[in-house]
Amino acid sequence: MTTKINKITIVLILVIISLFNLGMKKNEIIKDPKIFKNIYIEDINVEDLTTRQAEDKINKYYHPKNINIRYNQKTWVINKDIIKLNYNVDKAVKLAKDYTRTEDNLLNLRRIFDLAIKKQHKIKLKASYDEAKLSEIIESIKEEIDKSEIDATVSISESSQIKTTESKDGLEVDVSKLKEKIYEMIKEKEIKDIYLPVKVIKPKINTSDVKSINAILGQYSTSFNDKSSRGNNIYIAGKSTSDIVIMPNETFSYNSATGPRTWSNGYKSAKVIVGGKYVNGEGGGVCQVSTTIYNAALISNMEIVEVHNHTYPSRYAPRGKDAAVSYGYIDFKFKNPYSHPVYIKNIIKNGAITTKIYGCDKDREKLYIRTDEKHEEEKIYVNTYRVYLDNNNQKEREELVAKSIYKIKNQ
After folding, report:
1. Each residue of 101-114: pLDDT tens digit?
2. 96 by DSSP, 3-state: which?
3. Running DSSP on this structure, what letter comes out for residue 255?
4. Are 284 and 230 in contact (CB under 8 A)?
5. Cys staple from 32: which of 50, 101, 244, 294, with CB 3.0 to 4.6 Å?
6. Which residue ranges does the record assign to the YoaR-like putative peptidoglycan binding domain (predicted)?
7. CA angle 246, 249, 250 (to 5 degrees)
8. Are strands 352-359 and 251-253 parallel, antiparallel or unpaired?
9. What pTM, to 2 d.p., does this model score?
10. Which residue, among 151, 336, 342, has the nearest Cα to 243 in the 3D structure?
11. Phi, psi (5° rounding) for residue 259?
12. Which residue range forms the structural domain that includes residue 198?
């Protein structure tokens, strides 16, 4: 029995030594040793092949190809040589050959033993390419295809004539998606035609939006001396806040629309209230424009987001119906609550400014504005309400819109 075990041990030792010599000799006379058994590159068995044989075999199945990108009737070719596409077959074959020929003999022995008992070792081809050159080609394709979306426009004359232009969709190459597809193909070594991914960019304002603007939702007028510096400021502020489309749920900001009320923007010095006193300052009179728009917005059922009253009651608007503004400090803002856009039109002529807010006739509400006043010592307290009517012109509900506190002059 002992003799039989010794014989088996000797045979195993001889097998291991022969495998060891076959797979990992350092100073082999053979110039191009063959790859050990059960070694694969991708799914191709390269055992018992020389370097040249293995490279030839792999190259039959895996070789770089041009990449064709198609869009409608157009085709772009990304040349494999220009982007230096390479599957690095030589590096993979070297890894296969050296797998059992490392500097660590014990490691080599373990690997040889695993391979000898039919445990496979797989090596992946690692592709390389010129990323900068690929991006450059993609950018040139993008320049050919991309086009900006065009918003529909609406313009309304002083006589309420409405003109519109149609919107147009934009196009934009989805570069991230395109690159992802190319990277995946290169990684998997499966080159095939790609249909160019292009995103359709919808305009912010489309044709149906502007076509829905067909009626006046509310309007309001105030008068002024158009021969004064104040009149000049009202004209400039009125023009800068006119012909503006406000989309559903979008907020109009008076200060954003006018910008700074400075001399460089055409404004002149006129009376303004600072610290409760009237003084000359840039942009005096712009509050009359904000007040006029405010009252039109109230009647049009706009959602009032921000409004402030003046220190003293205004000459050009009833108490509780003024909107004081100061650039960088206080603003007048309202939000469009409808599912259709609205359009602000200011008409300034003959010493009067009229604000008309246009929208869809389906959004018109029956309402009126009322105020309640309370006088206490040197102050006037005013609540401003919006009162809604039903189809029989009966009060349906009301809402508190603003609370104002005024000082009484000369007290």
Report:
1. 999 999 999 999 99
2. helix
3. H
4. yes
5. 50
6. 76-190
7. 40
8. unpaired
9. 0.74
10. 342
11. 75, -175
12. 131-207
